[in-house]
Specification:
342 residues; Alpha-Beta Plaits; TIM Barrel; 2 domains
Length: 342
C-alpha cells in the first residue's frame, strides 16, 4: 500500500506515520514529489487490516492499495520519472544517454583508445567488462580485478564514468569501488542473492532483461533491488530468445513503451546483444530513440576483428561516429518536432 500525505504535511507528521507503519511490521520507502510525499508500506498481507488505520493519522490524506506485485517499481508508487545522475549524464532525463565501449577490457591501450573514441563521438558513459559470463568455460573470462583497475585509470584520464558487470555477491563491494554503475547481466537477472546485494550498494544498477524473462519478471527483479534501499535502477531491454535465428536474439522494442507505462524507472536498449551483428545496431538505435527509450548501451571496439569477445557485433569507430550523429539528429527531431519525451 501507499500512504499519500497531505500537501501541507509537516516533517514531524511524516516521521510519525513512518514510525507507526514500521511498528506494525512493514518496511517504509519515502518518495518525495514536487507537491507531496508518498510513504510506501512494503510487506505481506498479514497486517493489511491494521495498516488501513494509518488513514486516521495526522497529515495523512488517504491510503491507496498497489495492485501490481512490484510495489516500489510501479507507477502507482511514483508517478514522476526517476532520474539517475552518473557523472554529468542524467539517465531518465530529457537527453538521450549513450553508453559505449568494448565488450570486455583487453588491455590499457585498447580501453584508453575506446574511451577516447567514445568521448570524441559524444558518448556519456564508457562500458567495458572486467568479469565476463561466457557460455563456454574455455572462453576468455575477463581480466577481473586488473580490468577494474584499468577502468578506474581510464575514467580518471578521460572523465568518462564507467559501467561494468558484477556476477557474484562476493564481488559487489570490489566492483562498486572501481565503477560508477553496477551491471547485472541477462544471465543473472534472477540471481536473487546478487540482486539483494547490489540493492545495498551506493551506486546505480543497470539491470538487463534475461533471454527468457517476461516484463513482469524483470520488474520483480528490480523490486528486489529497490526493496533493499537502492532506488537507482536502470532497466535494459537487450533481446529475448525466440525461434528466429537471423539475429542473436530478438529485440523486443515494444517492451520500452510497455515498461514506460508500468514503471517510473529509466529504460535503455542494448541493440548489440539483441542483434549480434554490427550492421543492425544503427537501425535498432533509431528505433530506440523513436520509441521513447532513455538511452542505449552499444559495443564499440577500435579493431573489432581483433576483439577477444563479441567482435562481430561491435561498431568500428567510423560507424560509432555515424551512430552518434544519427542519434543527435533524431533526438532533436523528436524533441523539437514532436515534443519533448516524457
Amino acid at each position: 500500500m501507499i500512504i499519500l500525505m497531505k500537501r501541507n504535511a509537516t516533517e514531524g507528521q511524516i516521521d510519525h506515520v513512518t514510525a507507526w507503519v514500521e511498528s506494525v511490521g512493514y518496511h517504509t520507502h519515502l518518495s518525495r514529489g514536487v507537491e507531496r510525499t508518498i510513504i510506501g508500506a512494503i510487506g505481506d498481507d498479514r497486517g493489511k487490516t491494521q495498516l488501513k488505520s494509518a488513514e486516521y493519522l495526522p497529515g495523512v490524506e488517504k491510503i491507496v492499495p498497489i495492485l501490481k506485485p512490484y510495489k516500489l517499481a510501479s507507477r502507482e508508487f511514483r508517478e514522476e520519472n526517476t532520474q539517475i545522475r552518473v557523472g554529468e549524464a542524467v539517465v531518465g532525463g530529457p537527453k538521450f544517454v549513450v553508453m559505449a565501449g568494448p565488450c570486455t577490457v583487453e588491455s590499457e591501450e585498447q580501453l584508453l583508445e575506446s574511451a577516447y573514441i567514445a568521448r570524441k563521438g559524444g558518448a556519456d558513459i564508457l562500458r567495458g567488462g572486467a568479469f565476463k559470463p561466457r557460455t563456454s568455460p574455455y572462453s576468455f573470462q575477463g581480466m577481473e580485478k586488473e580490468g577494474l583497475k584499468l577502468l578506474k585509470k581510464v575514467r580518471e584520464r578521460t572523465g568518462l564514468p564507467v559501467v561494468t558487470e558484477v556476477m557474484s555477491p562476493a564481488d559487489v563491494d570490489l566492483v562498486e569501488e572501481y565503477s560508477d554503475i553496477l551491471q547485472v547481466g541477462a544471465r543473472n537477472v534472477q540471481n536473487f542473492a546478487l540482486l539483494k546485494k547490489v540493492g545495498k550498494a551506493r551506486k546505480p544498477v543497470l539491470l538487463k532483461r534475461g533471454m527468457m524473462t517476461t516484463i513482469e519478471e524483470l520488474l520483480m527483479s528490480a523490486e528486489y533491488i529497490l526493496a533493499e534501499g537502492n532506488e537507482e535502477v536502470i532497466l535494459c531491454e537487450r533481446g529475448i530468445r525466440t525461434f528466429e535465428t537471423a539475429t542473436r536474439n530478438t529485440l523486443d522494442i515494444s517492451a520500452v513503451p510497455v515498461l514506460k507505462e508500468l514503471t517510473h524507472l529509466p529504460v535503455i536498449v542494448d541493440p548489440s546483444h539483441a542483434s549480434g551483428h554490427a550492421k543492425y545496431v544503427i537501425p535498432l538505435c533509431r528505433a530506440a530513440v523513436a520509441v521513447g527509450a532513455d538511452g542505449v548501451i552499444v559495443e564499440m571496439h577500435p579493431e573489432p576483428e581483433k576483439a577477444v569477445c563479441d567482435g562481430p557485433q561491435s561498431l568500428r569507430p567510423e560507424s560509432f561516429y555515424e551512430l552518434m550523429e544519427e542519434i543527435r539528429r533524431l533526438s532533436s527531431f523528436m524533441n523539437n518536432g514532436m515534443g519533448v519525451r516524457s
